[in-house]
Write a structure and sequence with these properties.
- It is found in: Cell membrane; Cytoplasm, Cell cortex; Cytoplasm, Cytoskeleton; Lysosome.
- Keywords: Cell membrane, Coiled coil, Cytoplasm, Cytoskeleton, Endocytosis, Lipid-binding, Lysosome, Membrane, SH3 domain.
- This is Cdc42-interacting protein 4 homolog.
- Strands 8-7-6-5-9 form a 5-stranded antiparallel sheet, with no helix packed on it. A two-stranded antiparallel sheet has the order 1-4.
- Helices cover 59% and strands 6% of the residues.
- It starts with a helix and ends with a strand.
- The longest helix is centred in the N-terminal third of the chain and has 93 residues.
- It has 586 residues and is α+β, with helices and mostly antiparallel strands.
């Protein structure tokens, strides 16, 4: 069934229906545009939200950043940022695949519909014109026929009139004959016009208009089909990004499961452990013995000097959360060193004079420092020193070790640069056209000075690290010096020339470990590790490995970037932690 057959007389209905269909497409395009705006605004707000709560670069070094709960929160913010990107992708695809495509197709449909309606209008106007010609010929035939009848009646009347002359009769007959001839021509013309009109009318109603209506029907059906595709795209556009959105949500779930409260507690302990010993019990201070001793030379107990009384105060009232207003200022900090006690049963010191109690109190007021109120006040205004002596022992150890690693890395960089300058100088000496060797003298001298300065700092911090009791292995680097010819020689750490032959300069200079493996009982493995990359193990203390090789972990990374491992044949050594995936036994 088609419109040309069933709706041949419903031109106005068809015109209105097709116009309504085009308006529906426009309405749907506007709907999708507003949806894309909502998605874009949503994505923008999500990005701003993630940016607002994401830590600034300056805050990424805060101690809290190492906590798993904090890292998981950062992971959630990153996943939300990716999620916002997917919402933007939805908006972009909807705009491209639905809005722009439908808008372009809508313009084509409008132009096509306009053409069909113009064709129908032209056919209608042609039929109306033919009808006007038919009506005109019909009226002319009617008029001429009446005139011919009147002329025939007049000729007959004149012929019967006895008073009429023969000439009048002939004239009337000729007039009647002429009128009859004209009427006959008008009749033939009318018949021809009628036949033409009927033919065009049949053409109009049975061919032209049905064809136009069928074309409009095809246009409308294509429009409906295109809109249906737009409806499907509205859903498919979001379905296509659902897997990625699902991964974002899985990432958020994974961030939640990665939170390890026990590990966070250990990190807090590691970051804030002071290394101090807990304060001891408060001792009983018997001031009566001092008074009795002042009044009598005889004493029932062991005589106590003023410094003995002062020494007893060193462990008194070490409060963690007290306020300043409630604290006494007559006690020593917990880490003060007690003075040497007076000899037991020894004689009175001549410093006591006649009033030993007054002298004792005076000495206490002069020598005893005000007690630190709490750990908070200890942190408020520390005197920062180069050896980090202002920090608690455990924190000092970690800071010194970190500083030592930083200096070692900087020293290695300077060593590499000095080696490169030496090679460049050798090339210039062999090929003068490439450059002047003397132009590198200032850079070589500056690099040598930097190496000497860094070696000095390295030795200084190694001494402090040894004092702080740092565990693990310390990286020591061999630095390069240059002779007068520009060739670089290896120096041992103490500055003397090494007897070893000069190694191949094309190989990387590796750090050497101080401790040597001694013949001792093998330590039980604490886990396994799998090599992600191959490692040559060229330097002393290291061990080579191949990609995919499984090794036993003997000692975890102590923060220096190296892990101690063992092969099944008993070979042990250090490997870079970043080259393997480690699994520790629980």
């Amino acid at each position: 069934m088609d419109w040309g057959t069933e709706l041949w007389d419903q031109y106005d209905i068809i015109e209105k229906h097709t116009q309504s269909g085009l308006e529906l497409v426009e309405k749907y395009v506007k709907f999708v545009k507003e949806r894309t705006e909502i998605e874009q605004n949503y994505a923008k707000q999500l990005r701003n939200l993630s940016k607002k709560y994401n830590p600034k670069r300056s805050g990424k070094d805060e101690p809290e950043c190492r906590l798993s709960s904090y890292q998981s929160f950062v992971d959630i913010l990153n996943e939300m940022n990716d999620y916002a990107g997917q919402r933007e992708l939805i908006a972009e695809n909807m705009m491209m695949n639905i809005c722009i495509d439908l808008t372009k197709y809508l313009q084509e449909l409008k132009q096509e519909r306009k053409t069909y309606l113009l064709d129908a209008k032209k056919a209608q106007q042609s039929l109306e014109s033919t009808y006007k010609q038919l009506d005109s010929s019909k009226k002319r035939f009617e008029r001429e026929w009446r005139e011919a009848e009147r002329a025939a009646q007049y000729a007959e009347k004149t012929d019967q009139d006895i008073n009429a002359t023969k000439a009048d009769v002939e004239k009337a007959k000729q007039q009647a004959h002429m009128r009859a001839h004209v009427a006959e021509e008008c009749k033939n013309d009318y018949a021809a016009q009628l036949q033409k009109y009927n033919k065009e009318k049949n053409q109009f109603y049975f061919s032209d208009m049905p064809l136009i209506f069928n074309k409009l029907q095809d246009l409308d059906e294509r429009r409906v089909r295109k809109v249906a595709q737009g409806y499907i795209l509205f859903s498919d556009t979001e379905k296509h990004v659902m897997p990625i959105i699902g991964k974002c949500l899985e990432g958020i779930t994974k961030a939640g499961t990665n939170v390890d409260e026990k590990n966070d507690s250990l990190i807090v302990i590691e970051q804030n452990k002071s290394g101090f010993e807990r304060p001891g019990d408060v001792e009983f201070e018997d001031y009566s013995q001092v008074i009795n001793r002042a009044s009598s030379d005889s004493s029932l107990g062991t005589p106590k000097g003023p410094m003995d009384v002062l020494g007893k105060n060193r462990n008194k009232n070490f409060w963690l959360f007290s306020k300043k207003s409630k604290l006494s200022t007559s006690t020593l900090p917990p880490f003060s060193t007690p003075p040497a006690p007076s000899p037991a049963n020894g004689p009175n010191s001549p410093k006591f004079g006649r009033d030993p109690l007054s002298y004792c109190l005076k000495e206490i007021n002069k020598t005893v420092k005000p007690r630190i109120s709490s750990f908070r006040t200890l942190r408020r205004s520390p005197t920062v020193t180069e050896d980090f002596a202002h920090l608690p022992p455990e924190q000092r150890r970690k800071r010194l070790q970190q500083k030592l690693e930083d200096i070692s890395k900087e020293l290695q960089k300077e060593v590499d640069q000095s080696e490169a300058l030496g090679k460049m100088k050798d090339v210039y000496e062999k090929n003068p056209q490439m450059g002047d060797p003397a132009s590198l003298a200032s850079q070589i001298n500056q690099t040598s000075q930097n190496i000497e300065r860094l070696r000095g700092e390295l030795n200084k911090y190694e001494t402090w690290v040894a004092e702080a009791g740092v565990r693990g292995d310390t990286l020591r680097y061999k630095s390069h010096t240059f002779n007068n010819n520009g060739a670089h020689d290896l120096l041992s750490p103490d500055g003397a020339h090494s007897d070893e032959s000069t190694p191949d300069t094309s190989q990387a200079i590796y750090a050497e470990f101080d401790d040597d493996f001694e013949d001792e009982e093998l330590t039980a493995p604490i886990g396994k590790c799998t090599a992600m990359y191959s490692f040559p193990g060229a330097s002393e203390g290291t061990i080579s490995m191949q990609e995919g090789e499984v090794l036993s972990v003997v000692e975890e990374d102590k923060g220096d970037g190296w892990t101690r491992v063992r092969r099944s044949n008993g070979d042990e050594g250090y490997i870079p932690t970043s080259y393997v995936t480690v699994s520790i036994n629980k």
